[in-house]
Design a protein that fits this description.
Elements: H1 7-26, H2 49-63, H3 71-87, H4 96-112, H5 114-121, H6 126-140, H7 144-166, H8 177-186, H9 200-214, H10 223-237, H11 240-250
Helix pairs in contact: 1-2, 1-4, 2-3, 3-4, 6-7, 6-10, 7-8, 7-9, 7-10, 8-9, 9-10
């Protein structure tokens, strides 16, 4: 199942492609019912590889729909999950119009927030996007240590860029995340106070759990911890005030 964060922008096209493929292969054009032979299986077509390949990508997108901090998508998360559940129920999708109805509901939610999704994703550079995608993949596979490590890697990359923009220094490249945090907190004026004060505890917390995640210690990285670190990482990376500060210093 794919959970790449960029898919949030392309879900409308993906839904239409999926709809066209499934309707063309499984449904009769004359009455909108399942084709002869497929109907005999009582619509268990939703378990076939042809169905699951694209459906699992759509399901993955719904799984991550609330990660960007877009209020409407957060509110609609349960509603979207209900449509996914319907599309996995072989007894609910025996008619074309019903199958299409569930997909159209998913498409409508994302289409209403497409501009905000695009704006949020534009705040991430390619390196941050790659690391977040890996963190998300790890999270949904239950690899919570890896999810935390990759989430915090994205923070480390952004922090280094911010500090370098504020006060270029080759030695910063050699520092660990913990050292970068200590360097910044001990010399905030030197770095033009580029990190908003609200994020200072976040940096320390994320670094603490990063250490736990990559070293053999007794502290266990649980799903709630991984969820929190992933969300905090995105809160830092998607902070528009932080981006504005960075751009102002670059001029």
């Amino acid at each position: 199942m794919e959970q790449d964060i960029e898919w949030l922008l392309d879900i409308e096209e993906l839904v239409e492609e999926f709809k066209k493929r499934v309707v063309g292969f499984f449904f009769s054009n004359s009455n909108g019912k399942l084709k002869e032979g497929i109907d005999d299986l009582h619509s268990y077509y939703c378990y076939t590889p042809l169905y699951r390949q694209e459906f699992d990508t759509i399901k993955g997108i719904v799984n991550i729909s609330d990660l960007l901090g877009i209020r409407y998508l957060e509110i609609c998360k349960g509603y979207l999950e209900d449509q996914i559940s319907n599309l996995e129920d072989p007894f609910k999708i025996t008619k074309r119009e019903v199958f299409e109805k569930y997909l159209n509901k998913i498409k409508k939610v994302f289409s209403e927030e497409k501009n905000e999704i695009k704006e949020k994703l534009s705040l991430l550079n390619p390196e941050e996007m790659d690391r977040l995608n890996e963190a998300i993949h790890c999270f949904f596979e239950g690899c919570y240590c890896s999810a935390v490590a990759m989430s915090v890697c994205a923070i480390e990359s952004r922090l280094l860029n911010l500090m370098t923009v504020a006060h270029p220094d080759p030695e910063l490249e050699e520092m660990t995340l913990g050292q970068l945090i200590s360097e910044y907190l001990g010399n905030k004026e030197k770095y033009n106070n580029i990190i908003p004060k609200k994020h200072e505890p976040l940096l320390d917390l994320c670094n603490t759990y990063r250490i736990f995640s990559v070293h053999p210690k007794r502290e266990k990285i649980t799903k709630p911890i991984a969820t929190s670190v992933l969300n905090l990482s995105l809160a830092f990376l998607l902070d528009q005030k932080l981006i504005k500060k960075e751009k102002a210093l670059e001029k």
